[in-house]
Write a structure and sequence with these properties.
The protein has 215 residues and is mostly helical. It has one domain. Helix 3 packs parallel to helix 7 and helix 4 runs antiparallel to helix 7. The radius of gyration is 18 Å and the shape is globular. The mean pLDDT is 90.
């Protein structure tokens, strides 16, 4: 807890208000400032040997589970789109104009570098910081149910967005961390969800009309 106090205090009391006051007009900084803060905090803690890779959950377990579960969101995108087409729902008024959605106007990068950042770097940094550092320290003595619920709430809190999507991803990540004892599984599952999101926005935009009601 002593380790986390200054890290969390700077995040919530200094950088959060500073960024929202000074960079609210810069979409990239506004969206991803927390990633750079998480990365810097982790780098400083590792360099000063206040925390180790092992304490963050890096080990050889969880790879297979994470890889399998991480493919499920991607497969679900294809299956859901096929279902909409086969059922004739894709031609209904609900999905009218779905193809007219413009990714960059929705806040998504249209560059390969931007998509790699969103699907590889962001899941890695977020999971290592929130799950590997924060959840591992704050909830390590709690039972599995409390870890799962607490992990979901903490993940939502760090994003300042109380959405079912953030809560669901946080709960899955915390559950996998507790079940496997590894940060690898949560990283791979998060990456799978991020890839699925990119596929939906760029290739299956009509699915957005379905997901908007649940996430």
């Amino acid at each position: 807890m002593k380790l986390l106090t200054p890290v969390l205090a700077l995040y919530f009391l200094l950088f959060f208000p500073a960024v929202h006051l000074a960079f609210s007009g810069n979409p990239f900084v506004y969206e991803y400032w927390h990633i750079f803060y998480f990365a810097a905090a982790l780098a400083l803690l590792l360099a000063s040997k206040r925390v180790s890779l092992q304490q963050l959950g890096f080990n050889n377990t969880g790879k297979t589970v994470g890889a399998v579960l991480g493919t499920l969101p991607v497969i679900a995108v294809f299956l859901l789109d096929v279902l909409l087409v086969k059922a004739g729902l894709s031609q209904t008024e609900l999905f009218a104009g779905a193809d007219l959605r413009v990714p960059d106007e929705m806040g998504y990068s249209t560059t390969l570098t931007g998509n790699i950042f969103a699907t590889v770097i962001v899941p890695f940094i977020e999971q290592v910081f929130v799950m590997g550092l924060v959840v591992n320290n704050l909830l390590k003595k709690q039972n599995t149910g409390q870890v799962i619920i607490g992990g979901g709430l903490l993940y939502s809190l760090f994003h300042f967005k109380a959405s079912l999507g953030n809560l669901f991803l946080g709960m899955i990540s915390a559950g996998l961390l507790r079940a496997t004892g590894s940060i690898i599984a949560p990283i791979l599952v998060h990456a799978g969800f991020a890839i699925a999101e990119i596929l939906i926005v760029f290739h299956y935009p009509r699915i957005i009309s379905v997901l908007v009601f649940i996430v």
